Amino acid sequence: MRSLITFTLVVFLSACSQPVDKSLLQASSFNYPKATKTTCPSDKTGISGNSEDNKTSAGATYNLRTPSNYDPSVAHPLIVVFAPAGTSARKSERHVHLTKEATEAGFIIAFAKNKRLSLRALKQLSSIPNDIKNKWCINPERIYYTGHSDGGTITNALTFLPSSEAKPTAIAPSAAGMDSNSLKQYSCPKPLPVMVFHNKDDSHFEGFGKQAADWWAQCNQCSDELSPPDSNGCRSYNNCSANAQTYYCESPGSHSDWPNKNNRLITFFNATL
After folding, report:
1. Angle (nearest 5°) at CA 210 between 109 and 227
2. Shortest CA distance to 64 belongs to which of 45, 51, 48?
3. Of 35, 68, 101, 202, which residue has the fewest beta carbons closer than 10 angstroms?
């Protein structure tokens, strides 16, 4: 395992203060299937609704949202959102505004507070999924990572670094600061579904998104050929390994802009069922 990992850091300011529809920040109810089986013990202590400033034993902090009608006996898929540099969990939630759509689809969603990137910080952040599993009813086979800017970089790193505590089922990094020269230093993890988002007008990390998508496609044993873009600007790589579909999604916008393809992201995560 490498003793040093180097990232480009960007201080994230403007986008997190942009107005957002407050209804998108409210947890929704989930239409639980009638034939749901009890899959979790009754000793889980996680509460329904909003849970603020949770801290893991390793030192990571996160906010968490469940469906408003959370059933603690049913195993839920989990999304962990990693924040841009210098961004609180609450500001990250506003930036990606995934809460309503995620909980409506039956996900529990957690927003990690940013930590300055280092191997120690990555180890701390990797403790979040297991901390959540200990408190809430989570399906361990359905854990997903996403995040923007530094959060996208963290999403990538926690997936391919052998030292990370919990491996995701699928990932959707956005505006990550890792290009082909950075990524080629690391060994591929086992194939998994990947959807890379990167905006066309990203002047901080110009071209990094496609380079990262190409690296993931190579890891997932895809061909170099891509489909035409769909209505969300997403192109799929052809002939990937089974259960390791790989996408590159590009839309207008600057580095600070969240791609705002939340429905597409949720659909992608749900496709791993």
Report:
1. 90
2. 51
3. 35
Residue-wise DSSP of 256-268: TS----HHHHHHH
The first and second tokens of residue 233, run together, are: 């600007």
How many whole angstroms separate alpha carbon 151 and alpha carbon 98? 15
Tokens of 4: 């040093």
The residues, any chain, with a CB within 8 Å of residue 22's CB and separated by 6 or more, are none
- The letter for the amino acid at 42 is S
Look at the pTM and tell me if it is higher than 0.90: yes
Q: Which residues contact 57 (CB under 8 A, 6 or more apart)?
A: 127, 131
Measured CA to CA in angstroms, residue 106 lies from 122, 212, 229 at distances of 27, 30, 28
Can you tell me the distance from the alpha carbon of 197 to that of 260, in angstroms, rounded to the nearest whole number? 10
Q: Which residue bears the tokens 């986008």?
A: 15
Tens digit of each residue's pLDDT (9 = 90 or more) over 63-75: 999 999 999 999 9
